[in-house]
Design brief:
- The chain has helices at about 1-20, 30-50, 55-75, 80-90, 90-115.
- The chain is globular and about 50 Å long.
- The chain is about 75% helix and about 0% strand.
- Helix 2 (about 30-50) runs antiparallel to helix 3 and helix 2 crosses helix 5.
């Protein structure tokens, strides 16, 4: 009887692990290009909030609310974002390419911000 219970437990754990590694494509999947844009903007938002709020508790509350508000302006629910994120994250090579595009956009944004900086804003 113990062997049957152990085998059943192992099958359940394996099943859960497969669903985490290979989730089904969600019906409300955010298209790749839009997901890259959303991920980029969420990172910019997070960076701003992280620099503004030093306490973890306050940072977490503000980031959660601000992230939800941003997604709402894009017509995306939090569940849709999470489902899409998990789906894309499960496809390692595609996800790495998406992250590369996010980083490229962040670098371009950083360069543009530095170009538009006034000389008096410089630390030197």
């Amino acid at each position: 009887m113990r062997i049957f219970a152990l085998i059943t437990l192992l099958l359940v754990v394996q099943s859960c692990d497969d669903k985490l590694r290979n989730p089904e494509k969600p019906d409300n999947l955010i298209p790749k290009e839009q997901m890259i844009e959303v991920m980029t903007n969420m990172l910019i938002l997070e960076g701003y909030i992280q620099n503004t709020y030093s306490t973890v508790n306050r940072y977490y509350k503000v980031m959660t609310a601000s992230g939800r508000d941003y997604l709402k302006t894009q017509g995306i629910t939090q569940k849709q974002y999470e489902d899409s994120f998990l789906y894309y994250n499960s496809m390692e090579q595609d996800y790495d390419k998406m992250l590369d595009k996010v980083m490229e956009r962040l670098q371009k944004e950083s360069i543009e911000l530095q170009k538009n900086r006034e000389p008096s804003d410089s630390l030197s």
